Amino acid sequence: MNRFDYVRAGSIAEAIAAASEPGAAYLAAGTNLLDLMKGGLTHPTRLVDVTRLPGLDRIERLPDGGVRVGALVRNADLAHDADFARAYPSVAEALLSGASAQLRNAATTAGNLLQRTRCPYFYDPASACNKREPGAGCEALGGETRGHAILGWSEHCIATHPSDFCVPLVALDAVVEIEGRAGRREVPLEAFHRLPGDTPERESVLEPGELVTAVRLPGEAAGFAAHSRYAKVRERTSYAFALVSVAAALRLDGGRIGEARIALGGVALKPWRAREAETALVGAAPDAAAFRRAADAALAGARPSGDNAFKIELARRLIVRALTLATAGTPERMPALPASVFAPASGDPLHA
Amino acid sequence: MPETAVTRIRHGSSIGQPLTRRDGLLKVTGAATYAADNHPEGLLHAVMAVSAIARGRVTHLDVAAAEAHPGVVAVMRPENAPKLAQHPDKKDNPFAFRLDLLQDANVRYANQPIAVVIAETVEAATEGARLLAPRYEAEAARTALDTDTPFVPPAVGAGEEPSASTGDVEAGLTAAARRIEVAYETPSQYHNAMEPHAIVAAWDGDRLTLDTPSQALAMAQGRIAGLFDIDPKNILIRSPFLGGGFGSKAGAAGPQVLGIMAAKLAGRPVKLVTRREQMFGPVGHRAQTRQTLRMGTDGEGRLTALEHRTLTASSTYDDFFEPSGGVSHTLYASPNISATHEAVRLDIGTPMFMRAPGEASGSAALESAVDEMAEACGMDPLAFRLKNYAEIEPISGKPFSSKALRECYAQGAERFGWGSRNPAPRSMRDEAGLLVGWGMGTATFPALMMQAEARAILRADGRGAMLIGAHDMGQGAWTALAQIAADSLGLDLDAVTFEMGSSDLPNAGIAGGSAHTATAGSAIHEAGRAVIAQLADLATNDEASPLFGAGNAGVIARDGSLLRRDDESRGERFSEILGRAGRAEIVATAKSASDPAARDHYAMHAHGAVFAEVKVDPELGQILVSRLVGAFAAGRIVNPRLVRSQYYGGMIWGVSFALHEHAVTDARSGRIMNASLAEYHVPVNADVPSIEAILVEEDDPHVNALGIKGVGEIGITGTAGAIANAIFHATGIRVREFPITLDRLLG
């Protein structure tokens, strides 16, 4: 068999030391990593199991009103934490729109950030892929590109980041807490993932051995709770990655938009913060014309990476939709089909 | 087999009762053993290495690296693969597919097996296969229908004529008041049973024991016997449960034979389980098609002409041609009909029978085109279909043995509420502002029947047994066939030992063509009658019996007794008759087959009507099938609960056909880029919110003694077209390429 070392770390320091060796990888739930290993797509020589590390599985209230989510908090546990979902409803909605119940019960906070792209060429060991083998080329270019990037891609890589969770997180200024040999540091989530450029194999700013220990949401982000939505367009009603998704959050001041947050998923190799769109909305009345202007601003730099020009128009329309939903207000109860266009307005279960 | 308790609803007859699956408890508790659950002593594991190119040859395998890996026992490849007695390309009937059994280094499609690594553990074999790091001499792959000049295949489907016609289509079109010409495309779809092709093979000299799923035990046994030059009797195939088959487990597929070869090479039992991505190539698929339909109608909406031209693809090395045009032979009345097929050869694994082969793809296109014709005539789609109702089978001119399609239309429409449909496209919305569309389609599938044999036993203790090598792919044969067995023996279900799913039992033919209940059921029925006739002989010739002199036709069997037909108060228990005769048991074997005279006289088909409601987001194009109502007439219903399940499964497959399933092939490499269940989409629960199946009563005195038609495939037909038509009705956009995806609806 494909032999590798397995190290169960007892402390963060031990984990970092063990994972600083070349070829090492952190293992949490393994919902992505183990599939990649079984498929012969990645070959870590050492797995450092962090699931027993103490203290990383907590959701903590912070003095500023924000929240720290430990790296090992399971996606389902976070989404169903009532206080968290009340303060950051779009994050909970995004989490519940992703994967399946079984996967959400296992998958962790940090693991979600670090999941790999779903580009079929990345998953096909016979295809050239700069992510798997730097310099090998990108066979997705000119191939089956329906789901690929429309923003921030390069001729070296046109893949997208598949996370739902990260999309509202990046909109709400989440911060990633990292520990490494050189100590602790913090990186805004917006700066955590890297665009491909000419080094698509480098997917985040993490240095060898560095461990994500928590994701923090600032207290002021909870100020959007009343007008905060996540909308996701996908090829089937559940258990599918986003073709395009949008997190939209608004602070309304007397009929005007005081502040807006917009991020897109499924469009780039990172969760895409649409700051120009946000700026365009400040001071505007929350109406369709303003939303369309914002959508145009968000997609101004978009270009198809293949047979996916429809995603640009789809993203525009979904921004308008998400902003419209956010303006209408966060629903009292989580929709039966979170983030779906088919969520019954009443919140009645679809399978009545 | 331990059994789930059954609820009895009606005394004296098992047929017709909605029994729950007798194997249900085993399955939900995990106690049912599927092929890969078997672990004989000394078992080795085999993993296939498959080709990353679609055309060319393998020039190098790093066998040394694989062999050096700890745990690897052998690397089977063309140089050392056991010699076969028969070339894997030998083909003596349409069901015998050419196989890739490491006969040479040539590659004919992506994912073709090119070596098998045998090891002590599945992990070692997996890593060994990876270490082979094949190198190739690749040629350009051909995977598109436009790649080559089409030819007319000698036969389509299971040996059917490629062309059929009546009248003069051109004249009919010329005379028409309205005409349409439309082309529909359907994609390659790959069988993905939950249980992949798996085998546990153990040799003992020239005897072979196999645990492997099979829809056709005797046929698989015969093929394997030929390949290894052993007596079929020396091959035992155990296949008590299949985790789905859908046509891909009808013969012995390549990976299964490779498992047998690996066991031979290693001299130990071997388990080989096809990996999910390896399901996309060596075990068949539904071929892509482009179907061009021309139709004309007179001023009242009667079809003056119907032409259905199919272009499809087979592999470069074998013949299977998707018979999409077959549905146009039977479904609508027109004096001028023509259905023809053409094909190209591509660098793909050979297509095969896949649930409703021909009917699924053909009806998706035909029902969509009929909707377009009705639209062109300004007619309600149901009224249009009734206007063109085929009272006799149009091309053959035969009457139908039974056809309750009118009742299907009526009951389905009533239940669905079709009457309140606003005919204008894009005219209906729900309270959330979503576009709502209603569409319908006609369902059809031939009522086939094959040969089978069964053995019935009555024992002195009054119990009975029925033995038949029948197959349960998940459809419920363990239950439905046992119900037929019980009635045939005049016994309560609990008093019958029912055995099936093994090749040492009488040959039950093929579980395919929606014909297994009719096929195996008829053999069971005949065997039961035969053994009861023997019992009647014993009783009616015995002066000590109250039945003496009644004549063997003058008695009936019920609840473990023989009764005088003319006086049911006079009777005798089976056990008493056998006891007095000093017989421990009596045994009868009987064969059954369809009646060629009846088939000469009658066209035999099941029919149905499917009504679909879809919701479409007006800006984002995302589609949801919100309601499906199907009404089906398929002769006698042996078990309404199981039949409803079959209809549900078929209709959900129709959702899959309409909206989800398609293999994404990279035109440059010929590789399938979505060969996993994460990316090869089929519907999930949320895609099927409400589904109903109505069982429409139909009495068919001609189709077979039991009056049974098939129910396994018809649910797909009609449904895909109904959904496509509903999408048009919702949006006003006609998408002529399956699956229908949201980008096409963005406007």
From TrEMBL, chain A:
Keyword match Metal-binding: no
Superkingdom of this protein's organism: Bacteria
Keyword Flavoprotein: yes
Entry keywords, A to Z: FAD, Flavoprotein
All residue ranges annotated as the FAD-binding PCMH-type domain in the record: 1-222
Transmembrane segments: none
Protein name: FAD-binding molybdopterin dehydrogenase
Native source organism of the sequence: Methylobacterium haplocladii
Automatic annotation (TrEMBL), chain B:
Pfam families per UniProt: Ald_Xan_dh_C, MoCoBD_1, MoCoBD_2
Disordered: region residues: 148-167
Molecular function GO labels: iron ion binding; oxidoreductase activity
Domain called Aldehyde oxidase/xanthine dehydrogenase a/b hammerhead: residue spans: 29-140
Lineage top rank: taxon: Bacteria
Name of this protein: Dehydrogenase
The organism of origin for this protein: Methylobacterium haplocladii
